[in-house]
User: Fold this.
Amino acid sequence: RITAVPIIDSLVSDFSSISHRKPDYVRRCILVLLIHAVLIFAVFLAFFVGHWLSGQNEDKNTVTDELQTQRNFTLMDVVPPAYESYEFMEKMHFDQGKRKQDVILVSMPTHTLPLHYDIHLDLTNVAEKLVRGSLTAHLEVFGNSTDDEILFHIGPRVAIDRIRLRRGGKRVYPKTLRIEDMRKLARVVLKERLMKGRYLLEVDYNTTICGEDGGVHCYYELDSVVTSFTTKFEPTLASSFVPCWDDPGIKATFNVSVLHPSRFVVLSNMPRSSEKRKSDGTTMTTFQETPPMSTYLLALAMGEMVPLEARTERNLPLTVWTHPEDFLYARFAANFSPVMFDRLEDELKLPYPLPKMDLIAARSFPVGGMENWGLIVFDKQSDFLLTDGLNTTVDRLYHEYRIEKIITHEIAHQWFGNLVTMRDWSDLWLNEGFATYMVYYLLQQEHPRLVENEYITRLYQLIRKQSTLDHPALVRPLTTELEVEQSFHGTHLYTKGSVMVNMIRNLVSDAEFHTGVRRYLRKNAYRSVSRHELWESMPTHANYGAEQERLSVVMEGWLVNEGIPEVSIIRNYHNDKILVTQQKCDENFHKSTSRRRRNDHHHKASLFNDSLFDYSPQLVETKQRRKQSRRKTKKLRTTSSPAFLSISIHSRREELRKARRTPRSTDIWSVPFSYTFGSLPSSEGQVVRQFWLKNRSSSFLDAELSPSHTLLANPNWIYPYRVNYDITNWKMIARMLHQNHREIPVKSRMQIIVDAETFLSNSDLPQLFIYILGLVYLAVESDLGVALIGMDAIHRLCDAFRGVHLPELQLYLTPAVAQFDKLLDETQADPELAALWLIDPTRLSKIYQLRCITNRHTCDQQVQARRWMMFPSFLHDDVHKQVTAVCHFLFTNNVTGKVCTLSQLKTRNSHWSTAVQLAACSHADRIVQLAAKQIVATKNAAIFASTLQVSYQRPQFRSVGDDLCLQCTYTCILVLDRRLPHAGKKDKVRHHRPGRDETTPFIQRYL
Assistant:
């Protein structure tokens, strides 16, 4: 049944309903609009904040320089680098190719120090580069502190999941946790002040590994999955893996346990104490507690490795770990390591304190070696594995020698650096200087000539380097992580540090020195020290001359002063007076002074003959009087060995509270000056004078020194300073070299060549330097070490005139080059003597170039050029020899070799860099222009620089290259004004060389 409803009531009802819903609809619309507005604003704000955070946290290894992205070739690829870039020391710790954002070093407060770390690591997700960790730090608070916060280091990749603090078993509730990424610090701010006693700091965290700015270095399979890794926490990267007090002066003990996939081997500083396999394919490995050590020595390694175990004389297990494919190549290292280990223990009279030693040949490691206590890591690509690819006895012997050096260096660190650690990075030389010195000292018995000549070569490179603008002090304030990393320098740290250690030995005598070293290690075992603890263990006074000088006072100037001293000697030949002065050596000063002097006075070219000696002063007869120098010695003293592990936390705190101040650098040294004159076979004998030069200058009379006597300073080059003489004494030295050079000690002859190159070549008589190098003396020099230093000087002299036709100079130097050739042939019969040529690998390429420059038949240009033109893509083993000969042929015979050179330039294969060098020698303008265009197109100055190393480079090549560079954009690199990328050097590209129209005035300025 249908019920009828009045129309009026129905309408009223409908209108009433509408009037009630309308206001509700408006409110809802406004609410929806507001919600959308808030969401849009939130998205915008989140995007803005995220973009800002990403800028703050972007990878610190990101290279913004466009040149880095264009890196096709480097200087290492196309020309062998010189000097320290080949030293094993420079590769030891510092990876120059990587750079992260600099961080200021913060001294940690000493009111709270860690005693012990318990670290549990979960490596089951290491394939995804993720590590989870749990840390328990046992802390000691000294006295009731006014501070209410605990500071520790934490890396930017470490994320804290949970943090708890306990004292006496009770929870201590923090107020806030502040993370300062720019300073790598975490601050746990408490609600109350710290109280004296023990605290437990518990931190659960996770971190990502394998980043270029971290301390974990990974090896990847083809599918980019991490299959192995090793750690390197030196200098300040431990906090990138675990929150800690990342300061070398703060030592603590460690317990480490690791959960990892069962198929991998896991190693740490100490032996495994337990190993529990689980059903899920993982294993829990726990390691024994370490002795007190710095955090940068904490180490961990994981991978599919196999052991090669050996034993020392006292049955200490020494195991070399390699990947299966490298197992056979590790035999030499496994045989040599225990022998050197026993020798070090016997020499230091101090047993190695850990129960094992592992050596790992890592697949991917940024440096040559790292001395982690009980777990040394080497880069397998660096000189650790001995392959069967060495086809000559000389190459094999020298490669074995390099392996022995790097192993000895890292084993020596187990005492120098690990057992006794520098308190502050500014005293890093206590680690590296002693470890490098021990390499020379311990290997001298097996390789006497190699060791002695390498030490002199490094000393010679050090003196040259420290005479330039790049001359940092050995001990200097280091305020940032970048400064610490840059201090790991092959010349300025490793070589200079070992030279200073050797200087200490010479000042106190052999016996006193080694007794002092043993005392230093015993007294300071498990401690952090400064150089003052070293002086306390050494004899108080230096055993030199008639005056007693405190060893610490003498050495302080040598450690904190920049550069090296230059001692100048001026004789008055009429009244027996001698003036000796000292100053900081600066080669640039001598060059600029010489340039101004030659511009002011016109000098005519003179012959290199005995006319140089026509104007010696009139000789005056004087009465002879002999003065004896006195030497004092001290009796040997010994002390008993202390109990190593009984060091209290209070004594460690007192060590850290000592002032860390570095005196300012000056230009005054306490120089142990000595000179000699006379001859041993003569009736008068040889006289030696010794005294301390402590002031700017010193003037004195020596009535026994006749004007006809040649004065020779710093005999045997015992101490690392340069010597300059007045021009008359230089002439007498040159005459003695030519008449009877054997009257001058071998090492003194080396120093004469080095110093003459700096002082005589920039004097009023530069031809005297060429006279010393040339016709007579070096042509009969039979000592290979002296000859090699002379060859270096001759090569630099020829290099100064590259591109200049100067047949008289070439003819004058030919007998010396012939002697170098003869020595190279003669030394092939003695592998150790022949290996001297490999100490500086550039020397082989230098002798090849000098052969061709002086038109020696051993250049073999015709045969080499014919072989190259027949087979352009084939280069025999000695590439530098063949390239040098072919370049000489192309330059001197005015042949183009168009087909060969063009085909190689157009084909960008492995021989392209060789073709570029040969193109610089070609007389074909088309080839020169094509090569220059291709070089400029790479936007890499290294390739252009490599062509500048070619002995017969045409001036047109430089001209075309300069013109093309000037037409490029800024990213093209103006090679004459900008520094070389990737070359590891701070020097600019070689200065402008004279063209043909500039030849005459250039030679006149030099001569």
Remarks:
- The radius of gyration is 35 Å.
- Residues 111-413 form a domain with the Immunoglobulin-like fold (CATH 2.60.40.1730).
- The mean pLDDT is 79.
